[in-house]
Design goal:
Blueprint: H1 7-17, H2 21-36, H3 44-60, H4 73-82, E1 96-102, E2 107-111, H5 124-134, E3 140-147, H6 157-166, E4 172-177, E5 180-185, H7 186-189
Parallel strand pairs: 3-4
Antiparallel strand pairs: 1-2, 1-3, 4-5
Helix pairs in contact: 1-2, 2-3
Length: 196
């Protein structure tokens, strides 16, 4: 037999049950394998046997299905507000901080790092994204962005393009605006992004 898994369903169930997509994929694969090996869950007794067997496979791989607790938007913004402390912005005097939330609950912070050759400057959003990707994390739920000025810290064009490389269309971008928080989706801030 074959095992066919729907990526969209994996993402939906991971969000619904608070698991990482990796954990959900592992458990759905193990569940499907148990069916191929002849196990079923039509009766309570069969369910108990099958569940024990299907849980054994991911556990042996070190994958747990424990719930991921995500930060609230306010908590993520608070983490972003810590990041500008490390900003290197001697030219613009405009400190920016970002906090990036992965689907497995990790938070990666970033600040802007300027350079006298302005093109070599790196924005806070890209710093956080590159930090996460360099650690092997490529699936994200949200990013919060704050700045030292009074205006909202909207991502620049280059950051939006980098975000579109790693974010899903529904990944949330959170900024402070008008005394509160304003949330946009990736598809809202860059509706027709370039991709190969």
């Amino acid at each position: 037999g074959d095992i066919v898994l729907c990526v969209q369903k994996i993402k939906e169930q991971a969000d619904k049950y608070g698991h990482s997509e990796k954990s959900e994929l592992a458990f759905l694969t193990a569940h499907s394998m148990m069916h191929l090996f002849g196990y079923d869950h039509m009766t309570p007794e069969e369910s108990a046997v099958m569940e024990a067997k299907q849980n054994e496979v991911p556990e042996r791989l070190g994958i747990t299905r424990q719930e991921v607790t995500y930060m609230t938007d306010n908590e993520l913004v608070a983490k972003a507000k810590e990041a500008p402390e490390n900003s290197y912005s001697p030219y613009s005097h405009f400190a920016v901080g970002a906090a990036l939330l992965s689907t497995d609950g990790q938070v990666f912070t970033g600040c802007n790092i300027e350079n006298s050759s302005f093109g070599a400057t790196n924005c806070a959003e890209r710093t956080a994204i590159f930090k996460a990707v360099s650690e092997g994390v490529k699936d994200f739920k949200a990013i919060a962005i704050v700045c030292s000025g009074d205006q909202p810290a909207y991502p620049c064009g280059i950051c939006r393009q980098v975000m579109s490389e790693f974010f899903n269309p529904d990944t949330r971008i959170i900024v402070e605006e008008g005394g509160g928080l304003k949330t946009y989706t990736m598809s809202e801030i860059l509706p027709d992004s370039f991709s190969l």
